[in-house]
Design a protein that fits this description.
With 173 residues, the chain is α/β, with parallel strands linked by helices. It contains eight helices and five strands. Helix 2 packs parallel to helix 8 and helix 4 runs parallel beside helix 8.
């Protein structure tokens, strides 16, 4: 097939599937309304009264969402930056101060880099907010405040592409 023919060929895809993905994400976000409770209020108050920076961390797709949340905080005038967990445990913990708050995003809350990071954060006596999908995770147990979205069903047919969980994380953040 010639290049011109390829360019003129209509892209075919399943619009119903695209609509189902959007609906799954929207429904999951709407179902999170109950988590906007005392824990959410405590997290907002912690950030409001923070005299340091709001350090946001996460790995993989949760890390990408964390970068966006950090950028949004900075846009509001809140001192914030993103700290990658692997970089943190390999020498960048010096970026943290006791008057900071660390916000960690992890759906499962058990990733090796995350558990190592939160252990170090707690040793430094820095306050920790979790955005997670698991109340029983190591991340939840180590955190001062937990914003738990609960378990979600990903829209991906294989259940591996984290579109629903990351949309929920972004909405919480």
């Amino acid at each position: 097939m010639k290049t011109e023919e390829l360019q003129n060929r209509a892209v075919e895809f399943d619009l119903d599937y695209a609509r189902r993905v959007i609906a799954a994400e929207a429904n999951a976000i709407a179902a999170m309304a109950p988590i906007v409770d005392e824990s959410f209020t405590r997290a907002v108050e912690m950030m409001y009264h923070c005299t340091g920076s709001c350090i946001v961390s996460g790995i993989g797709k949760a890390g990408i969402i964390g970068r966006k949340i950090s950028a949004t905080l900075a846009s509001t005038g809140t001192p914030s930056h993103f700290l990658h967990p692997a970089e943190a445990i390999h020498g960048d913990l010096g970026r943290l101060r006791q008057n900071d708050i660390v916000i960690v995003l992890s759906y499962g809350g058990e990733t090796d880099e995350i558990t190592r990071l939160i252990n170090l954060v707690k040793q430094l006596q820095i306050r920790l907010i979790a955005i997670t999908g698991d109340w029983d995770s190591t991340l939840s147990r180590y955190s001062d405040v937990v914003l738990c979205m609960g378990k979600v069903n990903e829209a991906c047919p294989l259940g591996v592409a984290p579109s629903v969980s990351t949309s929920c994380m972004l909405a919480i953040g």
